[in-house]
Recover the amino acids of this structure.
């Protein structure tokens, strides 16, 4: 009897224990550059990107490469193998043509300091697979409440309107006739079905933007690039070195967005 009770307690403990990713300590890395150092934590729920980044760092794959693409109020991008020992003015970003599966998580978004993986566009890469070695760090810009509302509405309203038209217009004549006949019960029944169809498809839609209160606050107070959300894998975030990020993001660049003064990645250190 006692053994059975003990076993039940063990099973209950396992059932209600937090997920493994939540229990596992987040890994930390330091990106040492010629402009200063930036420290990041890597997310456990993007294990493919986390482990790949750590592997490449330990192998020294990032040592000597450049932040070769810098766009003010947007992001800084580096890690391409062809940027090592690149000549001045050379167009870069054509490293290894190898991808890893996407790990896009709604909980991770493009706030300032987000560490993410670039990729080829959807027409060449419908599965949104990530480049195996390159990465970018979000610099972004701060948004006002109105700008966030306008951005969300610009995406969501056309989607909602299309769904409404899909289910409402086929029933419009019937609803109009029921309304004219004052057939209240029948009208409510048909209208209820239409409303449920609209709501169900809206809830299932994956193209709409759902922005949490925390996301809104981060985009307003810290900044970021919300239009990249749910399109690219974010696998970490900066915890130290925002001044270095700002310094790199503000550098003058050429027509290809390469800094006129090279920003070299000296080493990516994995904190053991």
């Amino acid at each position: 009897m006692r053994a059975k009770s003990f076993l039940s307690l063990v099973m209950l403990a396992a059932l209600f224990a937090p997920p493994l990713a939540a229990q596992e300590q987040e890994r930390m890395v330091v990106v040492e550059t010629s402009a200063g150092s930036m420290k990041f934590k890597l997310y456990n729920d993007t294990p493919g990107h986390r482990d790949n980044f750590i592997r490449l760092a330990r192998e020294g794959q990032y040592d000597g490469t450049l932040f070769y693409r810098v766009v003010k109020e947007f992001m800084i991008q580096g890690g391409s193998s062809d940027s090592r020992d690149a000549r001045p003015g050379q167009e870069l970003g054509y490293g290894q043509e190898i991808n890893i599966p996407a790990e896009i998580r709604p909980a991770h978004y493009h706030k300032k300091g987000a560490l993410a993986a670039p990729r080829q566009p959807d027409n060449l890469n419908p599965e949104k697979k990530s480049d195996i070695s390159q990465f970018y760090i979000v610099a972004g810009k701060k948004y006002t409440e109105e700008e966030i509302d306008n951005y969300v509405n610009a995406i969501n309203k056309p989607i909602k309107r299309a769904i409404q038209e899909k289910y409402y217009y086929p029933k419009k004549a019937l609803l109009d006739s029921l309304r004219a006949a004052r057939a209240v019960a029948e009208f409510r029944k048909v209208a209820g079905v239409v409303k449920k169809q609209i709501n169900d498809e809206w809830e299932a839609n994956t193209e709409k933007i759902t922005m949490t209160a925390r996301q809104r606050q981060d985009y307003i107070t810290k900044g970021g690039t919300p239009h990249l959300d749910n399109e690219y894998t974010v696998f970490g975030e900066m915890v130290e070195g925002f001044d270095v990020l700002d310094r790199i993001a503000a550098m003058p660049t050429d027509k290809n967005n390469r800094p006129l003064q090279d920003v070299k990645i000296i080493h990516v250190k994995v904190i053991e």
